[in-house]
């Protein structure tokens, strides 16, 4: 059957139908976005301009902050604009671009979190060989692999959606172009497509989450042999990672494991990984990390001294 596509643009239904509620959240999400930009920019600048960039954990954290900046910038500015607009429309091409970019950056972020878990595992289980195993070449390789996996995941998803016929209606019950709300608009049976989407996104997220959980269980098991001071320091670092993983993965699992068409709170739950997680990540990694706080104080004191000298 020939693929027919009569839709040239989509219209977002947004998070809420209440105009007053949307105006309130316009200012709330604007403040959140500015806080995300500032928090992650501070982390990036602090790590790049201090000795922390030499340590694998902070090297990965630098990349994680960059992904948070890029990912939120593909979603939140349009969400803010739409909250204040009478008509929330997006062209077909721009919708496909947002779909590809969001899944690319989210895929990269997921595998950066895996790299951070691997880094903590090696640091705790094999501390004497840590700097040999987690050398800069391997760190760069892990980042390259994260981008490669994210790219092929998003390409597969984009090709799947591009081959689907959209005949109308064109109203997306969401605030961004994602695969599940788009599938609800397809004018053909999507049973096979649902299975492919769950395999491409849902099962991958679940598998990665289980690997991360297993790695942290192994880390906790191996902490038995460490001193009480070493245990406290390791637990403080790992608890920050665990909080970030839960904030990102649990909403993703809820959304992508269930098939399109099922009644759920996808658009409300997705706010956790599009806005809340990138907002809290800088706080989690700075407030609970003395080394990061000290580096921030030194870098920003030095910059202030140079400015007023």
From TrEMBL:
Major site of localization recorded for this protein: membrane
Topology relative to the membrane: Multi-pass membrane protein
PROSITE patterns, sorted: G_PROTEIN_RECEP_F1_1, G_PROTEIN_RECEP_F1_2
GO cellular component terms given for this protein: plasma membrane
A UniProt-annotated Pfam family: 7tm_4
Name of the featured protein: Olfactory receptor
Location of the G-protein coupled receptors family 1 profile domain: 39-285
Annotated keywords: Cell membrane, G-protein coupled receptor, Membrane, Olfaction, Receptor, Sensory transduction, Transducer, Transmembrane, Transmembrane helix
Places the protein is found: Cell membrane; Membrane
Stored InterPro entries: GPCR_Rhodpsn (IPR000276), GPCR_Rhodpsn_7TM (IPR017452), Olfact_rcpt (IPR000725), Olfactory_Receptors (IPR050427)
Domain of life: Eukaryota
Any one GO MF annotation of this record: olfactory receptor activity
Organism, as annotated: Nyctereutes procyonoides
Family: Belongs to the G-protein coupled receptor 1 family.
Ranges annotated as spanning the membrane: 23-45, 57-80, 100-118, 139-162, 203-223, 235-257, 269-287
Known role: Putative odorant or sperm cell receptor.
